Amino acid sequence: MFEELNWLTYLMIILASYRFTHLIVFDKITEFIRKPFLKKQTIKDQEGHLERKDVPKSKFGYLLNCYWCAGVWSAIFLALGFMFIPNIALPIIFILSIAGAQAILETFVGVGVKLVDYLKTK
């Protein structure tokens, strides 16, 4: 099984896991999955400002809201898919890996654009 795993496929799985994790934990489109497991809570920061935040209601809510936790589960899900149903998993991994790489590139480009805009104002 792992003899078929070359460096490009491994990189694709890593990028797909990154994007899938982000999709679960942060993206608006999957908010409906997280929402039943979260509750609104007012939190006071160190400066005394009050802020309303979504906090987990349960351990499962924590797993959906924690980037590190969701990352482990998404990696397991994608790896098992690759190992046992590659005909279905590989197209999904391919698409998610492209989206993951694009998100990483956009982060660097976005930071660069913001820095240029910031430096223009100085």
Average of pLDDT: 90
Q: How can the largest sheet be summarized? A: 2 strands, antiparallel
- How helix-rich are the residues, as a percent range? 55-70%
| The number of domains | 1
The poorly predicted ranges are none
Shape, please?
flat
**Rg from alpha-carbon coordinates:** 18 Å
Name the assembly state. Answer: single chain
Strand order of the largest sheet: 1-2
Query: What is the straight-line distance between the termini?
Result: 56 Å
Strand/helix succession = HHEEHHH
Beta percentage is: 5-15%
The helix/strand class is mainly alpha
* H/I helix tally: 5
How many β-strand runs? 2
Transmembrane segments: 6-26, 62-85, 91-116
Protein name: DUF1360 domain-containing protein
Keywords: Membrane, Transmembrane, Transmembrane helix
Pfam family, one: DUF1360
Overall description:
This protein has one domain (2-121). The chain contains five helices and two strands. The model has no long low-confidence stretch (mean pLDDT 90). A hairpin with a 5-residue loop joins strand 1 (38-44) and strand 2. With 122 residues, the protein is mainly alpha-helical. It has helices spanning 7-25, 31-34, 59-65, 67-84, 86-121, and strands at 38-44, 50-56. Strands 1-2 form a two-stranded antiparallel sheet. InterPro entries: Mycophage_PG1_Gp7 (IPR010773). It holds the Pfam family DUF1360. This is DUF1360 domain-containing protein. It comes from Piscibacillus salipiscarius. The chain crosses the membrane at residues 6-26, 62-85, 91-116.
